[in-house]
Design a protein that fits this description.
It is elongated, with a radius of gyration of 25 Å. The protein starts with a helix and ends with a helix. Helix content is 43%, strand content 13%. Helix 3 crosses helix 4 and helix 6 packs antiparallel against helix 7. The protein has 356 residues and is of the alpha+beta class. The protein contains 14 helices and 8 strands. It has a 4-stranded mixed beta sheet, with helices on both faces. The chain binds iron/sulfur cluster.
């Protein structure tokens, strides 16, 4: 622990900060979240879902996940496609892949039990320092503090330092130094709650803050309040999508293996331009089946607006087609993850052509 932090927060002051934070948490903290408890498996899944995603968006996905895989033994039976299906719509699909990879390692290296040692947890795919600390501390297997985005903002304002990577070590030290000895699990939840509910990004509620009397920023305007930023520039992208349907009303879908955004999900073939799409139809001997109609629709992510140009390809009794027999699916049989844009494609198809 650095001398500077120790000198700034002598034990009596530290005890007061701890008490104020826990007293606030006992009255205002979020203690009704569905993953609350000591089950390390449930904490792991919730913490991975909460990476880069807000609590309210996570709750329904977490509940679906637990309905299907209530414990680690049930997860061992899941394929990557099964996990992707539940994750469909939550985004950042790499996290689902990491859960799958971690479940394999847990079976092979940890005797089928989720590890309870900090370094073992940290060694699993998709788990960084804050996630490992939360898993170990919430499950009652250790006393490790956290520094996610909200806590980083709260503690940097508390210290009145710029939220800059040069301060990271100091912030980690402070986070661990203030951590309660007796109630570490409640304390890290309180850190998260104060960071997201009180010490908010643009309008911190300093007058309601339980540690405003110890905060170096109070009563002045804290550093690290984002200035009115220019609107984030939305990138526009064109995508060409080929919707291939056979005479039995089945759709041709491929597993996406190359794209970071949707990797692991299933989709109609997509291309960056029309000429790539046409070359693909020629190489698969289906160019005669391509219909001239194009439907357009847009699909927005936070800073990318995709325009999908969707071309229909009706394959009816066409002998020479060179497409794998394994990739045809009835809509009712789709039992794997698909991107949201693919849902829009199916809905548009159904509204134009009908589908039973
Ligand atoms: S007093 Fe204001 S700036 Fe300081 S920690 Fe509390 S909410 Fe954040």
């Amino acid at each position: 622990m650095s001398l500077e932090i120790k000198l700034s927060y002598p034990s009596r002051k530290r005890a007061l900060i701890r008490k104020n934070i826990l007293d606030w948490y006992d009255v205002k903290g979020r203690d009704s979240l569905p993953w609350k408890g000591k089950d390390i498996y449930k904490i792991w899944i919730s913490e991975v879902m909460l990476q880069q995603t807000q609590v309210q968006s996570v709750i329904p996905y977490y509940k679906m996940f637990m309905d299907k895989y209530p414990n680690i033994e049930s997860l061992f039976k899941a394929s990557l496609d099964d996990i992707m299906k539940i994750w469909s719509g939550l985004g950042f699909y790499r996290r689902a892949e990491n859960i799958y990879k971690a479940s394999i390692r847990i079976q092979q290296e940890f005797n089928q039990e989720f590890p309870k040692n900090y370094n073992d947890v940290l060694s699993l795919p998709g788990i960084g320092r804050t996630t490992a600390s939360a898993i170990i501390t919430f499950s009652g297997n250790g006393r490790y503090s956290i520094l996610d985005g909200n806590v980083k903002r709260f503690l940097s304002r508390f210290l009145s330092v710029e939220m800059h990577h040069s301060q990271l070590n100091n912030l980690w030290e402070l986070s661990q130094y203030l951590l309660s000895d007796t109630r570490p699990s409640d304390f890290i939840q309180a850190y998260m709650d104060i960071g997201s509910l009180i010490c908010k990004k643009s309008k911190p509620l300093c007058d309601e803050c339980p540690v405003n009397q110890q905060c170096n920023s109070y009563p002045y305007t804290p550093l690290n309040i984002p200035k009115k930023t220019k609107k984030i520039k939305v990138i526009e992208k064109n995508i060409w999508s080929l919707v291939i349907v056979n005479n039995e009303g089945q759709f041709y879908l491929e597993k996406i293996s190359y794209d970071n955004l949707w990797r692991g999900l299933y989709s109609s073939p997509v291309f960056h331009n029309k000429s790539d799409l046409m070359s693909w139809t020629e190489s698969h001997k289906i160019e005669e089946c391509v219909e001239s109609n194009i439907w357009k629709f847009t699909h927005k992510l936070s800073h990318i607006k995709f325009t999908f140009n969707t071309i229909l390809c009706n394959i009816k009794y066409h002998k020479k087609v060179s497409l794998s027999d394994d990739n045809w699916y009835n809509l009712s049989d789709i039992d794997f993850g698909i991107p949201k844009y693919q849902d829009k494609i199916f809905n548009q198809y159904k509204s134009i052509y009908g589908y039973n």
